[in-house]
Amino acid sequence: MKRLSVLLVCMSMLLPLTAVAQNKQKGAHIAFESTECDLGEVWRKGENRSCTFRFVNDGTEPLVIFSAITSCSCLKADFSRKPVAVGERGEIRLVLESKKMDEGVFHRVVQIRSNSNDGTKIITIKGVSKE
User: Fold this and answer.
1) What's the predicted TM-score (pTM) here?
2) Of 115, 124, 47, 117, residue with least CA distance to 84
3) Which run of H or E residues covers position 128?
4) What are the structural domains, with CATH classification, of the chain?
């Protein structure tokens, strides 16, 4: 009886571990450190402002970023076209051209399309444009 209860306790402890292992999907996976950048006040007659979004490929296959689709012409995205190996880091740099902005609060979205197993990711940049 004592052995049976010990066996049941051990099995109940291992069950959650096997469930976690089964939840990890195979394939590439992009995991961002942060998906939002707040630029604060941006002067329209000032210099361009930039934000860098760092990520890691925590999947099981190399990650390839296909495109970064911006929500306006005032925003440019720069990223490496080379595959990011498993466990390696990469970055996407956004450049905001302040002279193309309207005055007021802004919230711009960029769609990151890749071979990540959870599909398109969204990163955002926000702030207040002033004259």
Assistant:
1) 0.78
2) 115
3) strand 121-130
4) 26-130 (2.60.40.10)
